[in-house]
Amino acid sequence: MASEAEKTFKKFAAFEDSSSNGTEMNNKNFSKLCKDCGIIDGKTVTTTDVDTAFNKAKLTRGKNGGNITFQQFTEAMKELAQKRFKEKSPDEGLKDMYKLMEGKEPATTASLKATTVGAVDHLTDIKYTGSHKKHFDESGKGKDITGWEETTDGCVSGNKGAGTNDKKN
Q: Per the record, a Pfam family (predicted)?
């Protein structure tokens, strides 16, 4: 039976990687695991430490690619545990690292939704007095094309050539 740490490893190993079966993890997902599980604290363990630990673990594999197995992952975690939990033995530190990982899953970013507030909200606000007001009736419902007709001759007011937009020179 797989340990909680191994279950978490597999979840992160397969995250956004359709070619992964969860037995090997790439550097991007290793970094994500360390961030999402709170292993990176910005003080004793930084993103640089995480990258260094991953690359050291990867080297034990030789030239077989850029991923690590769970066994190599354990070695990387031991190295990070010595930085994060300096006062504890390597084995105790590793246990504490695994406690940080228990029950964790990769966090996903919220999907983007269309906004109806902010810059576009005033366009349908019946109290709005800006240039778009003429395009809406009192209830905020859009008018037909008659509400969109131009009311100027196309020239900038105060321009010495005002009113000559359609005339040929």
A: p25-alpha
